[in-house]
Amino acid sequence: MKYTILTATLFLSLTTWAQVPAPAPKQTKPVLLTGATLHVGNGPVIEKAAVAFDKGKITYAGPASSAPAATGYEVVEVTGQHIYPGLIQPNTQLGLTDISSVRSTRDEQEVGVFNPNVRSLIAYNTDSDILPTIRGNGVLLVQATPVGGTISGSSSVMQLDAWNWEDAVIKADDGLHLNWPTIPRALQPESRPDLSETINNREKALQELQQLFTEAVAFSKEAAGKENLKLSALKGLFDGSKKLYIHADGAKEIIEGIRFAKKNNVKNIVLVGGYDSWKITDFLKEQNVPVIISGIHALPTRTVDDVDLPYKLPYLLQQAGILYCLQYDGALHGHRNLPFIAGTAVAYGLTQEQALAAVSANTAKILGVDQQTGTVEPGKDANLIISAGDLLDMRTNNITSAYIQGRKINLTDKQKALYQKFKEKYEAQK
User: Fold this and answer.
1) Is residue 407 one of the residues assigned to a domain?
2) Do 102 and 27 have their domain in common?
3) Which residues, other chains included, contact 103 with Cβ-Cβ below 8 Å and sequence gap of 6+?
4) Residue 18 pLDDT more than 70?
5) 324-326: strand order across its sheet
6) Beta strands 384-387; 399-404: pairing state
7) Of the candidates 101, 231, 131, 103, which has an alpha carbon nearest to the alpha carbon of residue 176?
8) Strands 82-85, 384-387: parallel, antiparallel or unpaired by DSSP?
9) Is this prediction's pTM over 0.70?
């Protein structure tokens, strides 16, 4: 009983400290940002630019000299600053978990091995304390993704300023996530007896996976009227309405997983992880498979690999002509560092705008929301961030304002409130 009371007390204490700002109201007046350097997100950079948006949509993005007349607009002078598209974090559990030690705040995983019918969408928590700390550094959209099992469930693309998941959703159930069984490798002779059992278990898992897909393909061809939640959830893979995100790192696993998907008539495939993707770029191009790269800020996994391989992996895929994007792979509160892993990629070969595209335009294209967001272009959502310095450089990054669908969002959060509280305390003691 005392442990239950202690946990409840801790949870209430954390709730009391919560500093989640209320979502911004809808845009009611046209806004004109003028004077900044505009980074479109897919390559072009425009000096002395202007961006206009109304009713949540961008109406103009280009040179300030050709901008619409300011009459009727709320004009915001941002001379000397930089305008960027809102960044997008793919493959994350943001909004699905808050406090890892408190089970009631963790909704990122369901029990079971095959869970295609699980939807992260309805578990997304817009009141998470973590979200404001992430958007304060330019990440305005995320792909909320379940984990665990062989098939974890479906992800959805969400924006980070909303009252509930219905308001937050940008694209519901964009794809299913398949954790491809790894191929066991014997590193020591004494591990070989266990290795045999591991291989047998893997073969069994692959057989069960194939059986599920065989049933799903047959089910997708049957007449409407029958109900099967798991098989129905897989149906979108065969008509192209859903993507299959294959999580794999080794070259053999990547090839095996993609060939499995192709054999089962999966239309849209995305590779997640892709540590060895640089080894098989011809295969990825042939199969038209984009890559969500994880683990940029990481050590190489093999002693024979270049020590800087994780850092230069984006450049290697860029040179090979592979469509890719970046994800921050680490603790949830660290997802604010998404622009900085792009900055690392700049130091290891990418241009500034190529790296920006890897966390904005490319991500939107891979997730299937590029017609709505990802670049600063007329007709798209006004998902914008304004920084006083280089967004990708942690030394100069300074987000001064941000807009989601034209709404100017509140950039305060719990951490900033605590910083201000103790700053005032110690300044008063001087």
Assistant:
1) no
2) no
3) none
4) no
5) 87-92, 139-144, 151-159, 169-179, 243-248, 268-273, 291-293, 324-326
6) antiparallel
7) 231
8) antiparallel
9) yes
Same domain? For 216 and 354 the reply is yes
Eight-class DSSP state of 114: B
Q: What CA–CA distances, in Å, run from 62 to 45, 57, 307, 352?
A: 9, 15, 42, 19
Q: What is the pLDDT of residues 303-326, one digit of tens each?
A: 999 999 999 999 999 999 999 999
Q: How far apart are alpha carbons 232 and 230 in whole angstroms? A: 5
DSSP state of 183: P
Q: Rounded to an integer, what distance in angstroms lies between the CA atom of residue 308 and that of residue 291?
A: 19
Q: What is the pLDDT of residues 54-77, one digit of tens each?
A: 999 999 999 999 999 988 999 999
Where residue 192 falls among pLDDT bands split at 50, 70, 90?
A: low
Last residue of a domain, one of 372, 398, 423: 372
Number of independent structural domains in the chain? 2
DSSP alpha helix (H) spans, 144-191:
165-168
Residue 126 domain flag: yes
Return d(Cα 342, Cα 314) in angstroms, integer. 9
Residue 356 and residue 271 share a domain: yes
Output the domain CATH number for residue 336.
3.20.20.140
Which of residues 55, 85, 115 is at a domain's end? 85
- Residue 213 and residue 328 in one domain: yes
Which residue range is the domain that position 60 belongs to?
20-85
Report yes or no on 428 lying in a domain.
no
Does residue 15 form part of some domain?
no
CB 131, CB 95: distance < 8 Å: yes
- List Cβ<8 Å contacts ≥24 apart for 65-74: 67/32, 67/34, 68/32, 70/32, 72/30, 73/29, 73/30, 73/31, 73/32, 74/29, 74/30, 74/31, 74/32
